[in-house]
User: What shape does this take?
Amino acid sequence: MARRVDTDCLLLSVYAEEIKAFQKMIKDLDKAIEKIVKVIDEEQILRSIPGIGPVYAAGILAEIGQIERFDNEAKLAKYAGLSWKEKQSGNYASDNTPLKRTGNAYLRYYLVEAANRVRIQDPVFGEYYQRKYKEVKRTPSKRALVLTARKLVRVIFFLLKNHQIYQEKR
Assistant: This one.
């Protein structure tokens, strides 16, 4: 019995050391990403949005590429997979329309995760999220978050296209 306890303690200590090593690697990677991205002008534009840090900015910029590739924000949103299927027939239009699972999954991930941070730190996005949360009946948190990410796409497109810094509503 004592031998089993010793083995379990040893195993737990090895796992704890591995976790510490991984956490250090993550910190080092975050610092390296921040150092690399600082030279890109668009990074400063995205970082001006509260809640978007260097990693989200780098991921979004890497997946978007040149903003000039997109004519409007709707095309950028479709590229990111933040658009919905239409369910209609004649005069009937369904309220429950699923999100399309096409587009760039990495960009969609970065935008949704960034929107979650932005809604916490920016009151305009927070109010929008709450309003959408109350409107939806099925899976309100997911739907509201994706709609907030869609709003973030509009803001990002406008800021990058016009080379402007984000200014909070006062």
